[in-house]
Amino acid sequence: MGVKAELDHRAVEQRNAADRSLLAFAESAAAELVSTSSDDADSYVQRVLDNATGQWRNDFDVRKASVLDTMKSSETVTVGRAVGSGIERRNDDGSTTVLVAAAVDGTIPAAAPSAHDPAVGAAQPPAGDSAVPATTEPQQYQLRVDVLDVDGQLKLSKVGFVQ
User: What are the subcellular locations of this protein (predicted)?
Assistant: First the structure.
């Protein structure tokens, strides 16, 4: 293999490694976005802000009080996980748009039999068995996120749900 071919090969390997890191971050950040707990709403908001930059961070920061109120009153727990991702495009601003498929499982604690979280389609606990929390059917989401490297740290600069 010639020197140029070896340099090209290394460049491709470095780009592939960077893409794998970017996809892993996008999947982790998306899973965190759809994982909520009414018992730990403050930590959720802080995690989202820590992973955000630019207008997305500013917009979320402006509405964080509403997010906290909604989460605390919902009395639900949702656990999200990424099930796949792919790079859609590389943008002129240096960000990379990633599509992430995520699944969310939810539970309504037994202490809150009247809780209902329409965002995750939470079902009411079974009648007559208030000691057992109700588990919702898994929900599937597709998110489109822009990921930007900010001083060597990956951040979300845009987030949207794909319909």
Answer: Membrane
| 63: helix, strand or coil | coil
Which is it for strands 36-37 and 77-90: parallel, antiparallel or unpaired?
A: antiparallel
For the chain, what are the domain ranges? 3-108+137-161
Helix (H) or strand (E) run with residue 52 in it: none
Work out the percent of the chain whose per-residue pLDDT is above 90: 69
Q: Is the pLDDT of residue 115 over 50?
A: no
Confidence of residue 107 (pLDDT cuts 50, 70, 90): confident
DSSP summary character for residue 136: P
Give Cβ neighbours of residue 141 (< 8 Å, ≥ 6 apart): 34, 101, 102, 103, 104, 161
Tokens 């996980």 belong to which residue? 81
The average confidence (pLDDT) of the chain is: 85
Pick the CATH number of 3-108+137-161 from 3.30.2320, 3.40.50, 3.10.450, 1.10.3470: 3.10.450
Predicted model pTM: 0.79
